[in-house]
Design a protein that fits this description.
single chain; 6 helices
C-alpha cells in the first residue's frame, strides 16, 4: 500500500518536479543502480514506449521511480510491464496510453501462442 501511496504523491508536480523544459528533448542516462535493476531489455522497452508515445518523459520517470522502490531481488521485463500499467492507470490523463499499453501486452501474448 505504501508503494501505491508514493505513486499518488508523484503526481504532485510541486513535490517531485522530474523534468524541466530542456529535459523533454534530452536522452535519459541511467545510474549504475538503475542499470542493475533495469537490464538492457527493460531499458530498451522503456525507450520503445517513449518513441511510440505510450510513455512521456514524466511517466517514464514515475515508472523508474516505482521500479527502484520495489523490494525484490529479481526484476524482469514482465515485472516492468505491470509497473508501467500501474503508473498509467493511476496518473490522470493517461487513459489512451494505458489502453495502448494494455493492447501491446495482450496482442504480444496472443502472438506468442499462435506461433
Amino acid at each position: 500500500m505504501n508503494w501505491l501511496e508514493k505513486l499518488a504523491q508523484l503526481q504532485d508536480a510541486d513535490k517531485t518536479p522530474y523534468l524541466t523544459g530542456s529535459a523533454l528533448t534530452s536522452v535519459r542516462v541511467y545510474t549504475p543502480k538503475e542499470m542493475d535493476r533495469l537490464d538492457t531489455e527493460c531499458r530498451g522497452f522503456l525507450m520503445f514506449l517513449e518513441q511510440i508515445s505510450v510513455l512521456s518523459p514524466e511517466t517514464r520517470e514515475m515508472v523508474v521511480d516505482r521500479v527502484m522502490e520495489l523490494e525484490t531481488q529479481e526484476f524482469v521485463l514482465e515485472d516492468l510491464k505491470w509497473v508501467i500499467l500501474m503508473v498509467l492507470f493511476n496518473v490522470p490523463g493517461n487513459e489512451r496510453a494505458y489502453d495502448q499499453m494494455e493492447e501491446l501486452l495482450y496482442s504480444t501474448a496472443e502472438d506468442e501462442y499462435l506461433h
